Amino acid sequence: MRRTSASLVAGALVAAVAWASSPSTSAIALEPSAGVADLTQDINKILSDSRLTIARAGVVVKSAATGEELYSTDAGKQLIPASNTKLFTSAAAAETLGLDYRFPTTVLSAGRKIGSALTGDLVLRGTGDPTMLAEDYDALAAKVAAAGVKLVTGKLVADDTWFDSTRLGSDWAWDDETAYYAAPISALTAAPDRDYDAGSVIVSVAADGDKVKVSTTPETDYLKIVNKATVGSSTDVLIERQHNSRTVVITGTVADPYQEWVAVDDATAYASSLFRKALDKHGVRVLGPTVTGAAPSGAAELAKHESMPLSELLVPFLKLSNNIHAEILTKAMGRKVSGQGTWAAGLKVATDFAKANGVQVINMRDGSGLSRRDGFSPGSIAQLLTAVRGKPWFKTWYEALPVAGNAERFVGGTLRSRMRNTPAAGNVHAKTGSLTGVTSLSGYVTSAEGEPLIFSIMLNQFLSGSPKDIEDKIAIRLAQFSRTATVDAVPQLRQAATDAPDLECSWLKPAEC
């Protein structure tokens, strides 16, 4: 017996309210019903896929209403989570920093103002705002000019001391250094657009007659462009920053416009170059060079910009799986709790939060999941997902998770092309995770009877193409779950396979997936 699509939608609507209001409950021992037995049989069949023969698979499904464990295999095994790590980082940030938390960026006067001249240094001080755009630095420069400053006799000091000087995660792969998803972490940074990929620049190429035209977003002379590309009959172009330098080399052929997101070598130097250029535009001349250092005590504030609150930042962070947001929030937590804007301090905050909420198997090496030394068990992830349901910030956090099958980019996020036209579409709220040989999906789904469920699926060490369709099949089966009705689900699930990529959708710019 199957439920109608209308009843499925109604059940999902009822459960959506339940997700936002029902507290977590302790486990209740119940005899497995026929529906649970069917679910176990179906998930086992899905996991018997030949692609997983040599792989490791851990899966946990729990009832959020009763705490009952409905399915479990290798629930306690430590596996690589990839971007499921962001579940822990984002939840700890919501708890520690609060949803109203904002990142201020300020301009300070470290000298005396005589007429239109500032006899001393001008300081640009950041606290890690990953949403700063070139236009925001321009607005700060305009405020400095409006304050009557036309000449700075000293230096432009870039104060990024809110965080430490360690820019890259200790476990990150060296060949990711120029990739925008592994950009340097700094208290002063800039993003090229409203995806807020801080620490990167968009480099665009297009055929212009018999030459290849190169442009950047934002416009900047910070990068040195070496254009070796030629106009051709097809676009086969490589845009790559050379290791430990500002030089971007472009090779290959260009027929159609193409763009690439490129990480800068030094986020602080890049951001301060944007600000210095904006000062010049607004008629503020700085005689001295740009240097890094701490603002002196007693420096007076000339201008200030504040980011959107964390409640809003969670949307691009979680929907698009933004690594840089995760690492900045990690260091921000460390700064708030211990006065140290370091990975070590921030990861201790996130780990302590997880353990305080019942998580047992946890090894956090970064905030984003880019490290292959991160380790969680499916049971630990399910425990976190259960515990946070009782938090006052849960509704905002839950709504920031990607939503299966919703094509709107800032709703569906990394799940926008998955599980479309299935009972899971518009129902599953979950975090994706992807590295080579690693995929994970953990979150919430409402059953066919309106019962809220929690699940974690972690697949490691596969050598095939991405088995994300296996995750989708399990999630769809959970959306069809009924304790009382028999569901002929597996044949339908075979039609739900997706051509999902090996990496997060957001990591494959500019392609949509």
From TrEMBL:
Q: Which residues form the signal peptide?
A: 1-20
User: What PANTHER family has UniProt attached to this entry?
Assistant: D-ALANYL-D-ALANINE CARBOXYPEPTIDASE, PENICILLIN-SENSITIVE CARBOXYPEPTIDASE A
Q: What is this protein called?
A: D-alanyl-D-alanine carboxypeptidase/D-alanyl-D-alanine-endopeptidase (Penicillin-binding protein 4)
Under Enzyme Commission nomenclature, its number is 3.4.16.4, 3.4.21.-
The yes or no answer to whether the keyword Protease is present is: yes
One Pfam annotation reads Peptidase_S13
Keyword Lipoprotein, does the record have it?
no
- InterPro entries according to UniProt: Beta-lactam/transpept-like (IPR012338), Peptidase_S13 (IPR000667)
Domain of life of the source: Bacteria
Give the UniProt family note. Answer: Belongs to the peptidase S13 family.
- Which molecular-function annotation in GO is an example for this chain? serine-type D-Ala-D-Ala carboxypeptidase activity
What keywords are assigned to this protein?
Answer: Carboxypeptidase, Hydrolase, Protease, Signal
